[in-house]
Amino acid sequence: MESFVLALTRPRVAAALLLAASALALAVAYAAQYWGGLVPCPLCLYQRVPYVAGGALAAAALSARAARFLPLLLLLAAAAFFANAGIAFYHVGVENHLWASAVCADAAPTIASIEDLRKALARPPPKPCDAVDWTLFGVSMAGYNVVASAGLAALAFAAAARARWGGE
Known about the structure:
Layout: H1 4-8, H2 11-34, H3 42-46, H4 49-63, H5 70-95, H6 114-122, E1 135-136, E2 139-140, H7 141-166
Antiparallel strand pairs: 1-2
Helix pairs in contact: 2-4, 2-5, 2-7, 4-5, 5-7
C-alpha cells in the first residue's frame, strides 16, 4: 500500500491538486480584492499570472490522453509555480524594505496637455508595493504565497519525475 504522500505525487492526482490549488489561490485573491476591499499593487497582480498558467497546464495534464505529455506539462507547471515563488519572495523583500521595487517605482505620469493632467488627477494613485494591507500572524499574503508556490512547485516536480521515471 502506497503512503499518502506518495499517492499525492501520482501524476493525475497531482494535476488535480494543482488545478484546485490554483483556482483556490485566485479565488482568495479576487475575494480579497472585491469583497475585502484590498487594493492590489502591481506585484500582487503579477503573482496571479503563474497561477493561471499553472492551472491551465494542470488542466491540460488532466485531460491529456497520452501519458507521454504528462512529464512535460507537470514540469512546465512546476516552473510556473517556482517563478511565482520568486516573484512572491521579491515582493516580501519589498514589503520589508530589504530592497526597492523596480516595478512599483513612483514614476511621474507623462503629462503633455491639460487633458492629460486632468486624467492623471482624476484617477487614484497606484498602490505602493511596500504597503502591507493584511497580515495573519505577522505574515503578509505575499509571504504565504512564497510557501504555497514553493510547495506547489515541489509537488508538480515530484509528479513530473514520477510520470517520467516512476510510471503512472
